[in-house]
Amino acid sequence: MCSGIQAPINGALGKKVGGFEGAFVSFFIGTVFLAFIVTFFGRGQLGNVFSVPKWQLIGGFVGALFVTAVILAVPNIGVAMAIFATIVGQMIISMVIDHFGFFGTRPIPINWNRVLGFVFMLAALFFIYRGSFE
Fold first, then answer.
1. 116 closest CA partner among 87, 93, 95
2. Are 15 and 75 in contact (CB under 8 A)?
3. What is the distance between the alpha carbons of residues 8 and 122, in angstroms, rounded to a whole number?
4. How far apart are CA 58 and CA 62, in angstroms?
5. To 5 degrees, how large is the angle CA 53–CA 57–CA 59?
6. Residue from 73, 82, 92 nearest 129 by CA
7. For 64-87, what is each residue's pLDDT tens digit?
8. What are 85-127's pLDDT values in tens digits?
9. Which DSSP letter does residue 133 get?
10. Is the pLDDT of residue 132 over 80?
11. In a 3-state reduction of DSSP, which class is residue 111?
12. How far apart (Å, rounded) are the C-alpha atoms in residues 117 and 123?
């Protein structure tokens, strides 16, 4: 739900202030919100961030790329198509990550059931997208 809501809001923001600027504002507001949550409700070990493997710190960078891409895409291709592309991309990379066990995940091999499920999902998304233009 959040992606579906966030995309048009950030897309509209990007049209007003610029794509990269919109992504910056979005992340800044998110950072302020999370600083409040961590300050008053956090129970984790934030100090351990300096000892984690460096690859675990790229999530924010990847998130910034994602939000920026959506902000730039929504005004050009619309919310539904931007989310459609997002879901397809997420499913492809997720299945590859599962298959090889990247990032410390338990390997889950790609098999015919998973491929068939992906194909059905693509078909469903196609019809949802196509129905947007009738």
1. 95
2. yes
3. 22
4. 6
5. 135
6. 82
7. 999 999 999 999 888 888 888 898
8. 898 999 999 999 999 999 999 999 999 999 999 999 889 888 8
9. T
10. no
11. coil
12. 10
Contact between 97 and 103 under an 8 Å Cβ cutoff? The reply is: yes
* Cα–chain center distance at 120: 21
Amino acid letter for position 49? V
Exposed, middle or buried: residue 111 (CB in 10 Å: 0-12, 13-18, 19+)? exposed
Half-sphere exposure of 62 (CA within 13 A, CB side): 6
Q: Both tokens of residue 63?
A: 């998130």
Is 0.90 topped by the overall pTM? Answer: no
pLDDT digits (tens, 9 = 90+) for 8-18: 999 999 999 99
The length of the chain, given as a count of residues: 134
Question: Within 13 Å and on the Cβ side, how many CA atoms surround 28?
Answer: 6
